[in-house]
Amino acid sequence: MPVPARKLSRSKVRRRRSHDHMNPIQVGVCEKCKAPIMAHRACPTCGFYKGRQVVDHSRKAARLLKKTGHTHEHPEETKKAS
Ligand SMILES: [Zn+2]
Fold first, then answer.
1. Res 45: pLDDT
2. How far is the CA of 58 from the centre of ligand 1 (A)?
3. Contact 11/17 with Cβ under 8 angstroms?
4. Which of 9, 45, 72, 77 is the most buried (most CB within 10 A)?
5. Long-range pairs, 17-21, Cβ under 8 A, ≥24
6. Which structural domain, as residue segments, surrounds residue 63?
7. How far is ligand 1, taken at its centre, from the CA of residue 67, in Å?
8. What is the pTM of this model?
């Protein structure tokens, strides 16, 4: 099994790992409902993007209801928890 020719110095390892960090994501605020949103994406709560409706959440909810027999919200579960 091939192995590295020699041990990397602490300095070399740490220099490489200096770039291993991640940057925090940029979180915006929806113009309409003030929910936190990702940049360049339609609002997951109200379906608005750049001041207009791009996702019809009423149809999405109806489709989800037809498919799974329940909507995304779980009022019965929240009742159990409290
Ligand atoms: Zn919104």
1. 86
2. 14
3. no
4. 45
5. none
6. 25-73
7. 24
8. 0.47
